[in-house]
Amino acid sequence: MSTKEYLDNLEHIKKIDSSGMLETVGKTPELFQNAYDIFAKVSLQKLKKFKDIVVLGMGGSAIGGDIAANLLFDKADIPLSVNRGNKIPAYVNKSSLVIAISYSGNTEETLSAVNAAGRVSAQVICVTSGGELEKIARAKKYPVYVVPAGYQPRAALPYLLVALLKILENIGLFNNLEKELGRAIALLKKLKSDYDSSNSMRSNPVKQLAAKIVNKTPIIFASRTTSQAAGLRLKTQLNENSKVPALFNLFPELDHNEIVGLAGLKRAEHNYCLIILRDEKDSERLKKRIEITKSLIVNQIGGASEINAQGKTMLERVLSLILFADYLSVYLAILRGVDPTPVDVITRLKKEMAR
Questions:
Q1: Can you identify the CATH homologous superfamily of domain 25-175?
Q2: Cβ(219)–Cβ(346) under 8 Å?
Q3: Percent helix, strand, coil in the chain (nearest 5)?
Q4: Exactly one of 41, 46, 141, 256 is catalytic; which is it?
Q5: Mind listing the pLDDT tens digit for each residue in 20-40?
Q6: How far apart are CA 29 and CA 146, in angstroms?
């Protein structure tokens, strides 16, 4: 069976993707709408004034914080950082707002960090489907946004992100969530028809890219101010869904280091492929930088593929890249003959850590 036949054969796809990750990705617009319906009328008690926001999370539960950081980069007058780990920075104190996100509610690092935040009297809000984090929130009387259970954490992004954006709207840092999300959902529905399995390889850009990068190690370049979160999402989805390693770096930082290593490559000695996330809202200076960088390394790598953000608003553009990334990771998994859903090595690691 050819590559084209693999990705256009729905029966074969279902055989490989036995847990239904592709179906879940296809429901992304619906999940965002359902998430908004759940949290639309949720209000937040008045908070004390805070000087900074720290989002706690690991893996798929943390990516919403990265998206929020991208959205607020040039808008918020207070810093928002994402803390991945079991400790919190020394600057977190009673004047900090800590938002703890753990889909399962049992993430070891997040539980440790949220307890540390409580010890320094930080204001805490929790987002979870249950588990120990919900118990802590109820016991400490922290506000808690409860999302539906039953998904892989990485597949629950619509719920975790909308809950976070609703919190940010309630505290005055994100405006018109209903309108912004409505526009994004409409765009995602359109893109879904382009990317879905029912659309053949001939006219499906995601299937085409999956076929191009199979048996290669992706190097992902993104922009710090516009596509950082989407680039990280692509990397981690390739790791978890496709079960492949992937490298990730950001403009302009990569032009101060990584470009040297790539310029020294010999095509016959590697299997890398380059994927660049592009956004028409990038500055002209950054666009020039990307083109020059490509010209300096493209022959050594053997070409470059680009994924272009769609939509007018920042939320639309970020989510359009993420939808492409999610589909790409599943199609690549299917080409490799692996079920996208199980992450057995993570499960084994957690069991060993629990001993």
A1: Glucose-6-phosphate isomerase like protein; domain 1 (3.40.50.10490)
A2: no
A3: 55, 15, 30
A4: 256
A5: 999 999 999 999 999 999 999
A6: 20
C-alpha to C-alpha distance for 332 and 211, rounded to whole angstroms = 7
Amino acid at residue number 204:
N
Q: What is the DSSP letter of 103?
A: S
- C-alpha 292/C-alpha 259 separation (Å) is 11
What are the domain boundaries of the chain? Answer: 3-19+197-336, 25-175
Q: Which pair of tokens denotes residue 18?
A: 């036995």
Q: What is the mean pLDDT of the chain?
A: 96
Describe the strand order of the beta sheet including 247-251 as a list of residue ranges. Answer: 247-251, 217-223, 272-278, 304-308
**Residue 256 catalytic?**
yes
Active-site residue among 109, 180, 240, 316?
240
Q: Catalytic annotation on 30?
A: no
- In angstroms, what CA-CA distances link 125 with 165, 282, 297, 316, 352? 13, 33, 45, 26, 30
- Answer whether 3-19+197-336 and 25-175 agree in fold: yes
Reported as a single tens digit per residue, the pLDDT across 122-149 is: 999 999 999 999 999 999 999 999 999 9
Tell me which of 87, 94, 212, 350 is the catalytic residue.
350
Q: Which fold has domain 3-19+197-336?
A: Rossmann fold (3.40.50)
Catalytic residue check, 350: yes
d(CA 18, CA 12) in angstroms, rounded, equals: 10
